[in-house]
TrEMBL record:
InterPro entries: Ald_DH/histidinol_DH, Ald_DH_C, Ald_DH_CS_GLU, Ald_DH_N, Aldehyde_DH_dom, Aldehyde_DH_Superfamily. GO terms for biological process: gamma-aminobutyric acid catabolic process. The keyword Kinase does not apply. This is Succinate-semialdehyde dehydrogenase/glutarate-semialdehyde dehydrogenase. Pfam families: Aldedh (PF00171). Keywords: Oxidoreductase. The active site is at residue 263. Residues 26-486 form the Aldehyde dehydrogenase domain. One of its GO terms (molecular function) is succinate-semialdehyde dehydrogenase (NAD+) activity. Gene3D superfamilies: Aldehyde Dehydrogenase, Chain A, domain 1, Aldehyde Dehydrogenase, Chain A, domain 2. Signal peptide: none annotated.
Length: 490
């Protein structure tokens, strides 16, 4: 497909069903309500999408609950085959879906293509895990019985996803849920429902039975999900988004004693030691900072650089950041698209202004451009003082604040001085230091001489207030399975 230059091009937006998907049917919302989806690069409305009401949410749970027993009884291989076919469909539609992601979310087409590959990989990974769900057979301690364990699907799940990776975030939940034999209601972010609807269409085409997956875009996420969370038929909630909303959902889940998986906010430290390969660290920093225009939970949020290599690192990173082309993600050569909306852009600008007021220096960027769209330039800040808000708040934008350290322990203390614990990045050539610091970082993941940790084959997730549970890897399917123990008398 040729590069798109106008959002008036019908293309993929026209081809996505802009409706609710419930019980295998595409249908309008109760009362015919719709909401507008915007292109953050132009502020133009792309289309209207059905806006689910609480009754529509419950209808989706009705469908999921009705489909649960039949789906749980299917052959694991058949569930895997559906996922494998959906993987192939997504990969075959890379250009179409990448364009959809770019139009509603803003990131560059190159990044959107990478997201399609990444998301599809979760479907392939879990297609392979479905037939490997295992159990146990043991002799009991007294020797007069047997301990048999089997693993069964948790049951109907509510999956709530954010806008920053509108294909990959649902794929990371839908893949293991389908593989495990669970049915589900998916509530995509209101900024980016189209990509999730395209995913639902691909899964239906791949042979997913009616009712197994239901999608309810809505502008009222609280009122639509609250009755589901209270409903005894729901057995699990899996959420990716902010820690604040995660806390609310955990509270609601407590009332119904639901299984929960929470992928929440981050505040990733990026540590560059004196012995680091600084050029490699700059490369890694560009990935860790600029993937998704910095709108990633795993984005490097605080750069802690040893004073001996700080000048070299700052010069390298500043040159690379300043050279990035900012523009509409659909345009050729653009590397940095807009942020998702005005709220997010103003929040990022506010964090930078706060740091500068407190004494930080701008090495590049730092000013909102005068143009349509929610753009913020790649920005490097040095001499960031303790107490600047961006040291403790998730930036979620293309801003790299740099501070220096002279002592390894001081760096670790600073890195861990946050309620978040998703990922930490570490650059050093000393094996002993690498092991020591990787073990000391209070995070669920560590990027060691690597700016990218995401991998369908790896357990993705955080500690502290960054979340509960892991997505992907060999344990990823466990989030959607219950262990049943059968005490067997002889
Ligand atoms: P958000 O929490 O505002 O929204 C996420 C989702 O929750 C959306 O679908 C939204 O509609 C829904 N939601 C909002 N209020 C709700 C409520 N009261 N009840 C039910 N659902 C509700 O987050 P966001 O701004 O869309 O995404 C950014 C956040 O997501 C960042 O903090 C980021 O770190 C986090 N994130 C985490 C991961 C991870 O894997 N840890 C991945 C991506 C994003």
């Amino acid at each position: 497909m040729s590069t798109m230059t106008s959002t008036s091009d019908p293309g993929p937006v026209d081809r996505v069903p802009k409706l609710l998907f419930i019980g295998g049917r595409w249908r309008a919302a109760t009362g015919g309500r719709t909401f507008a989806v915007e292109d953050p690069a132009t502020e133009a409305v792309l289309c209207e999408v059905a806006d689910a009401s609480p009754e529509d949410g419950l209808a989706a749970l009705d469908a999921a609950a009705a489909a649960q027993p039949g789906w749980a009884a299917t052959a694991p291989r058949d569930r895997g085959e559906v996922l494998r076919r959906a993987h192939d469909l997504l990969v075959g539609r890379t250009e179409e879906i990448a364009l959809l992601i770019t139009l509603e979310m803003g990131k560059s087409l190159a990044e959107s293509r990478a997201e399609v590959a990444y998301a599809a990989e979760y479907l392939r990974w879990f297609s392979e895990e479905a037939p490997r769900i295992s159990g146990e057979w043991r002799v009991n301690s007294a020797g007069d019985g047997r301990i048999v364990t089997l693993r069964q699907p948790v049951g109907p799940c509510l999956l709530i996803t954010p806008w920053n990776a509108p294909l990959a975030m649902p794929a990371r939940k839908v893949g293991p849920a389908i593989a495990a034999g669970c049915t589900m209601v998916v509530k995509p972010a209101e900024q980016t429902p189209l990509t999730t609807l395209a995913l639902a269409a691909a899964l239906a085409e791949a042979g997913l039975p009616d009712g197994v997956l239901n999608v309810v875009p809505t502008t009222a996420p609280g009122p639509v999900t609250a009755p589901l969370l209270r409903d005894r038929r729901l057995r699990k909630v899996s959420f990716t988004g902010s820690t604040a909303v995660g806390r609310t959902l955990l509270g609601a889940a407590a009332g119904n004693v639901l299984r929960t998986s929470m992928e929440l906010g981050g505040n990733a430290p990026f540590i560059v030691c004196a012995d680091a390969d600084v050029a490699a660290a700059v490369d890694g920093a560009m990935t860790a900072k600029m993937r998704n225009v910095g709108e990633a939970c795993v984005a490097a949020n605080r750069f802690l650089v040893h004073a001996d290599v700080a000048d070299e690192f700052v010069a390298g990173l500043t040159a690379r950041m300043a050279a990035l082309t900012v523009g509409r993600g659909v345009d050729d050569g653009v590397r940095v698209g807009p942020l998702i909306d005005a709220v997010q852009r103003d929040r990022v600008a506010g964090l930078v202004d706060d740091a500068v007021r407190r004494g930080a220096r701008i090495a590049t960027g730092g000013r909102v451009p005068e143009r349509a769209g929610y753009f913020y330039p790649p920005t490097v800040l040095t001499d960031v003082p303790a107490g600047a808000r961006l040291g403790s708040e998730e930036i979620f934008g293309p801003v790299a604040p740099i501070t220096t350290f002279t002592d390894e322990q001081e760096a670790v203390r600073a890195a861990n001085d946050t309620e978040f614990g998703l990922v930490g990045y570490l650059y050093t050539r000393d094996v002993g230091r690498a092991v020591r610091l990787a073990e000391l970082l209070e995070t669920g993941m560590v990027g060691l001489n690597r700016g990218l940790v995401s991998d369908a084959a790896a357990p993705f997730g955080g500690v502290k207030q960054s979340g509960l549970g892991r997505e992907g890897g060999t344990g990823g399917i466990d989030e959607y399975l219950e262990v049943k123990y059968v005490a067997l008398g002889l």
